[in-house]
Amino acid sequence: MGLIPSFFRRRKIYDELSEEMRLHLEERADQLMAEGMSRGQAEQEARRAFGNRTVIEERSREVWQWPTLESIWADLRLAVRQLRRSPGFTIAAVLTLALAIGANAVVFGVLNALILRPLNVPNAESLYTVERGVFKDQSTSYPDYLDLRDRNRTFDGLTAYILTEVGLDTGKNPSQNWGYEVTGNYFDAMQIQPYLGRFFHVADEHGPNSAPYLVLTYAYWHSHFQDDRSVVGRVVQVNKHPFTILGVAPPEFNGTLLFFYPDFFVPMVDQELTEGPSVLNDRSQRDIFMVLGHVKPGVTPAQAIGDLNSVGAYLEKTYPKDDANMTYSLARPGLAGDMLGPGVKGFLTGMMLLSGLILLAACANLGGLFAARAADRSREVALRLALGSSRKRILRGVFTEALLISIVGGAVGLLGSVALLRQLSVWQPIPEYPMHVAVNPDGHVYLAALLLALASGFLFGAVPVRQVLRTNPYEVVKAGSTGILAGNGGRRITVRDVLLVVQIALCAVLVTSSLVAVRGLERSMHSKFGFDPHNAMLVDTTLSMAGYTGDRVQAMQRRMIDALQTIPGVKSVGFVSQIPLGGGGSTEDVFTDQTTDLKTKNAAANTVVFEISPDYFHAASTSLLAGRSFSWADDKNSPPVAVVNEVFARRIFGSVPNALGKFYKTEDGTRVQVVGVAEDGKYYQLTEDLRPAMFLPFLQKPTGMTTLVVRSERDPQQLASEIRSTLRGLDDSLPLNIQTWTQGLDIALFPSHIATVSLGVLGCMGAMLALTGIFGMAAYSVSKRLRELGIRIALGAQRGEVLQAALGRPLKLLALGSVAGLLLGILASRVLAYIVYEASPRDPLVLGGVVLAMLLLGLVATWIPAQRALSVNPLLLLRED
Amino acid sequence: MPVAKRPMTNPTARDLFPGALEMMILESLRRQPAHGYALVQHIQMRSRNLLQVEEGSLYPALQRLLKAKLVKAEWGVSATNRKVRTYQITAAGLRHLEREISSFERMFEGIALVLNPGDAATN
Fold this sequence. Notes:
Number of strands of chain A: 21
Number of domains of chain A: 5
CATH superfamily of chain B: Winged helix-like DNA-binding domain superfamily/Winged helix DNA-binding domain
Oligomer: heterodimer
Radius of gyration of chain A: 38 Å
Strand order of the largest sheet of chain A: 2-3-8-5-7-6
Number of domains of chain B: 1
Distance between the termini of chain B: 37 Å
Order of helices and strands of chain B: HEHHEEH
């Protein structure tokens, strides 16, 4: 039975039915007239005897329909018609919901990609990373790793990797690329097969530097070799050493870090070639970035932990000098275990809650609008009820309208969010590292958006239900439009009032949180770093990549400093092994001068180490509190000296003056004399507590890692190009990376930036929703009470009194909601403090800011309705009905 | 399932059970094909006005019968020169009617037995 022919057939049936009933009535009327009634009376009696013709006709038609489907379709068409008739309401409602659902979809998309989706490797549920100690340290030394690998009984192959940056020359365009240095069993432990060629395995390794092989990632092969299948077997230069390309990894495999995209994999045994000095044999050098593996089937994480702990105990006993606190725990490797995992989870959960609040506020907003709309249409509802419609049918119409709005709004929001998520996926937040946040939306996101749309549709569609159910058709039709308000009396609390208060409260929470975030960021920008990042350039170069080794390194470093100092406008040049807050750094244990047993557990402090040139403190604007900095005389022929920071001085020697001239011991037993004390600073993260640090002269502690700091007030662009040409003049194959120091701080400030932007956006959305909510209620209340206001003015009310009558209620609700929201926001301080550094919601500036913001909102929102209320002309009003 | 409606002035009257109207229509049509108005007259007359059927309530029942192909309809002209749509019972309708009548009679007998315990001969 085709749909179209049956449609036409049905039309015919309906027409015949109508005709039939008309004829029936005619016949009845004729008969009554024959019995003596007048025509008019006869027709009336005929109709009365027939019954409710509309209902009967409808019931007869229903025989030929799929009644439920058809009535739903009819409801839809009616809803569309009615929504088209009030375009302002419709557009406002759809946009509000689109924003709210879009925001939720974006946050959920990120949550889904980073936390809910399992890693894209086989058997991801059994893959864990091994963390050590209370601080959940993932780093470990190569000898320790070997012991873990060989002595455990619960893992199906334990593997490890290091993130490394090398100079890669594939024949054209040498560049710096990031990759993984992996142990021989990496690919086997990960249980993946090559896409092209083959992988290297344990069997290929015969000792240090014995396996000069390279495996490319699919993405890199695609972008740099244009899918050229002949790369297998080709020889390329890695830090000027020849390496052979063995194969290409499968398309979806990017290592095990969710946000890091390496270009290649090399065996860890080649560390000397890829990184310069090899620390593979040093048990105390915790160079390995992460150890991970699959637990054997049937083994629980608790059993694995117990097993690892027993290996740890063995290590502590056998190598007491290097190993201490060897207790282990397991974590998921995708977000670098507990390094990023909890932070990201906390942040995203907080964001999800806040965007959920936005959705609730939007629903409250729309609920209020819907209730107002329903009140306006109470006459229509009453008429429909009187004509024989059931309340259920009317309610179904209301819900259809609500769901229509919510689904359209949800679709628009989803489109926006998909676009945003795609943009986010290709964004590289920190240019020096190959990091992306791959949050491409998948089916879960669409499903979530659909569910949210349906839920919110039901939520705000339910608001007018009570009112519709209570409508008494007779009273409504009798009383006319004024009867609607009579019921409210202006004193009872209606659903709309409650909704408005809820909405305002939610918005106040959002505004509070964004102000807190902004204040927090502002404070973190101005907290003491221990250096001045303004007016300074950083030049990053790793000499080992250009083939410098041994003494040539220091000579080159000296030449670079001298060359840069000749550039006009440069005030000072220094260099440091690792830029503070740069994302890297190393630590060492230090011991008091009296300690003889140099075991880790006897250490006086675990100190951050920097190797610097004499002029570094000038270049970085780090102030010296006492003593002196280094000079070029402090070289390897003079006694070992150091400059320590204030925390170090206090902790080891008791006070700053006490520290000068005293000695302490480093891990290898060297006695070092303190010649100066520098100010404290932040070295790893902005949120860290102050920690001890020591600065060593580079001539005494050679380092291949070099970041030059150039302090100058010249324009950064010009300065950068001069620096580049100067250094290229020394050696034109040096890989260089030049940026201003404030740019270099991006990594450290990245989380705060993200948090502030997100919270700021949510705060703005909250404010907009509050604005529309108050405006809607104020405008509605004024328009409904125009007659009353006209009477008041006619009776002599002053402007103030009129305004109070018209807007008193909305403004009172605004105040109530703001207070509630403010309190809620303060209570939520724990959530916020986790996301934003130095966020303190009890900051008086924040409280004042929120109050001010809500006041402003109220003012702006009620401006137009207030004008309208004041400009009422009582004569005109009272004349009309 | 709509039932023949009582007019609002007679609240104590009983609603017909579902299918009763269709059964009576089929029986009437069995005796003689008729159009809607005539059917109403016929039913009221034969029930000696014991059954008050709202005239219009016939039509949904007729449509159901049409859809189930228990009757068929045809436009024509009545004896009094009016345009009418005449309904006629089909073979299927006849069969359906017989089943319904026997089922109804069984039910009726059962109710009557319960209501008249004096006649309850052990049978």
